[in-house]
Amino acid sequence: MAGAHPSQEGREFIVEADASAAYWRHRPDNTLPPPDMMGAYMRNRPVPDRRVEGRKAWIIGSGIAGLAAAFYMIRDGGMKGEDITILDALTVEGGSLDGAGNPEDGYIIRGGREMNWNYDNLWDMFQDVQALELPEGYSVLDEYRLVNDRDPNYSKARLMHRQGQIRDFSRFGLSKSQQWELIRLLLKRKEDLDDITIEQYFSPGFLETNFWFLWRSMFAFENWQSLLEMKLYMHRFLDAIDGLTDMSALVFPKYNQYDSFVRPLVSHLQSHGVTVRFGVRAYDLTMSVDGETRTVTGIRTRTDGKDEVIPVEAEDVVFALTGSMTEGTAYGDMDRAPVLERGRHDPGEDSDWTLWKNLAEKSPVFGKPAKFYGDTEKSMWESVTLTCEPSPLVERLRELAVNDPYSGRTVTGGIITFTDSNWVLSVTCNRQPHFPGQPRDVLVLWAYALLMDRDGNHVRKPMPACTGREILSELCYHLGIADQCEAVAAKTKVRLALMPYITAMFMPRAAGDRPHVVPKGCTNLGLMGQFVETSNDIIFTMDSSIRTARVAVYTLLDLPKQVPDISPVQYDIRNLLKAARALNNNEPFPGERLLHRLLGRTYYAHILPPLPDLEGPPRGSAQLEMKHLLSKRRHALNLISASFEQIRGHIRSQK
Prior knowledge:
InterPro entries: FAD/NAD-bd_sf, Oleate_hydratase
Distance between the termini: 42 Å
Number of helices: 17
Number of strands: 20
Strand content: 15-25%
EC number: 4.2.1.53
Pfam families: MCRA
Protein name: Oleate hydratase
GO molecular function, one term: oleate hydratase activity
Largest sheet: 8 strands, mixed
């Protein structure tokens, strides 16, 4: 089993916890907290021993997963930084967590990072990483809390339509049958959802609701992608459902993702002696195979066109990224549309997918990468970075913003999505400045769209065929300032990034398509990132990438330390109650008034959502609801009884 190894007492120790696997209770042979609890008691550090002395670590990829692997080997594994080497085909750390540019040429970011408070692995790491702009001893977590506690996030224009009108986004707009579609999905077993798409499960009307516009634009889901992944997201973010409409459940970094996270983490690792080698593409691993056991013996690399094999000893450890969501990005600008150089069904040999492809050819335990990279038409979307001087666009932004865009506080509070956009276009302005050193009169905005095969509403072209100037014109149209587009363009620089694999990890999948973090039989290889199998976690978050690295480190270094399952918010009765209210369009859900009747004068009264004013007496309303629920119960019992009679008759007929 991946993530498991014998403990010093001879019992199997499970590194990757799975809270959904079995009933947990206190007993003499279990000293661990519940498997999904993260707290101070989980902050223990194993005492370093001889298991790390003389061992080397090789990390392929300097994205957040690779950097986290180095961090945990040092902090929890006791490994020396000088024994850790990171290899990357790029020329800068961070992988998909990018952020670059200047006001003259325009800034560029391919994405942003929205989070909530229970990203347990991310905060576990960054509470031990020094913040770059605070005095010594204050962490990135300290800085994050300082920013967000003083400046709460919310949106007042989350959905828009009709060329600049704010659409009512206060409710999800789900009918009772559509609410049941979601509830049934939450109740389904994960194992029953292999290769099923979202549009195969939900009714067509569901995919036109406020809920789906809010959900798909925030998390970047397409209708044809994995229903299983949507289910996992529902569990992971159940505590945030009631803040999905106005985005009050989210917290954002001070700057862009590169300056907020990558720079301080890289500085931390460099201070411990970690080496990063750029321009090195690792494309295959040599292995010795003994039955079902596989041990990495070498890393095949290519640097400046020259091949090299880096030798790996049996006691060394290798951590590798499988796949890449930003591989093959095509760039454009104000007057140039991006041109993809990757094939629709195969990324070619000189890509970040090559290593995984070569591993998969060695054994089924390494998964099926073609399930994810095999159709870029279904995994591609485009992002747009706008560098803006004062213009009619900025003035329109003032009207939609929570605070003045130049105040340094929350601006749009997350993306604004245009629900009648043929592209499903969204735009956001985060706190400014978005880059250190950014001029005070410059704003950096980010936009993206989900549908790449439809003509725009104003510009009659698909988005990938458009220049930055044309995309800016489409944005101005949806903001209701199409007649001022030329004035906006004169004060705006646009940089484009078309990413063929940006949601490849959401493609429909089945058991075995993704490898485990430590594949079966591997003695010194851990796989990380967005394309590996975990118990209950999701993908497309920094926290999930960090978690995969953490599982790999603890397993390969044989550390008696557990990586908790996702936060247990999905089991919290308070979250279940407020989620039920939110899904019911903020109205009392069936049975809620009865709960108030039963618990209203008890210690647990505070867990119930406040009831709206009643037109009749409370007692009468509760009694009517009880009568309604009992009638439903009788109907359900009659159906169950009829089913048992059918089964009994079938059994008799077989005799």
